[in-house]
Amino acid sequence: MKKFSVALAVALCLTAFVATSCQKFRSSTSRARVNTLLITGNYIKPRLLCELAQYRSRQPIVLVQNDLDNPEDTPRLFYLQGTDKKKSQEIAISAFKDEWLPHINPKVVIFVGNADEDFPADLVRQASENFRVLTISGNDWDKNAQLLGEIMRLRRLARDYREQLDRFEAINLIPAASK
């Protein structure tokens, strides 16, 4: 009877452990992999496009914040998770290539915007050393939205982007010819 009680207690403990998937003992490879990492500048049109794509796909974004007062300063990087945009994490630009990007381990990195305007071209070079990289650039943001929608298989992205941009322009939140 005592052996049965011990076996039952061990079985209950194992069941509870498996059911709760105790984080302390889980391997780091068991986390969900990021399929697409979007990187863009913190400007209205590219950020709106990436946030709409993030809303539909639940994939994360890295925002590049350039100091407009002092363009020679190193830009700051902010990671916005796909599930909770309220929690942003600042990324040290020195750790981007060797520590942070391998930790996120995306299947593809998509840069949205123009290099050296929206993000440093060096980030594209760093990412392309170990990951597949696509760059969507150009001044026609409707075409950029259409292309990003095709790549990410988000059929309504271009239409949603245009509708939201028209709303912003209608209430003078942004000028019609702004970046």
Helix count equals: 6
Weakly predicted, low-confidence segments: 12-30
Number of strands: 6
Main CATH class: Alpha Beta
Provide the number of structural domains: 1
The CATH architecture term is 3-Layer(aba) Sandwich
| Rg value | 21 Å
The fold-level CATH name is Rossmann fold
Task: Give the proportion of residues in helices.
Answer: 40-55%
Describe the main β-sheet briefly: 6 strands, mixed
Strand residue content: 15-25%
Shape estimate: globular
Q: What is the typical, i.e. mean, pLDDT?
A: 80
- Structural class, by secondary structure, is alpha/beta
Would you write up a description of this structure?
- With 179 residues, this protein is α/β, with parallel strands linked by helices.
- The protein has a single domain, classed as Rossmann fold (3-Layer(aba) Sandwich), CATH 3.40.50.
- Helix content is 42%, strand content 17%.
- It has a 6-stranded mixed sheet with strand order 4-3-2-1-5-6, with helices on both faces.
- The longest helix has 19 residues.
- The protein is globular and about 75 Å long.
Gist of the model:
The protein is an alpha/beta fold. The chain has helices at 2-20, 44-57, 96-104, 121-128, 141-152, 157-170, and strands spanning 36-41, 61-65, 76-80, 88-91, 108-112, 132-136. Mean pLDDT is 80; it is low at 12-30.
List its salient traits.
179 residues, alpha/beta, Rossmann fold, 6-stranded mixed beta sheet, 6 strands, globular
What is this structure's SSE topology?
Layout: H1 2-20, E1 36-41, H2 44-57, E2 61-65, E3 76-80, E4 88-91, H3 96-104, E5 108-112, H4 121-128, E6 132-136, H5 141-152, H6 157-170
Parallel strand pairs: 1-2, 1-5, 5-6
Antiparallel strand pairs: 2-3, 3-4
Helix pairs in contact: 2-5, 2-6, 5-6
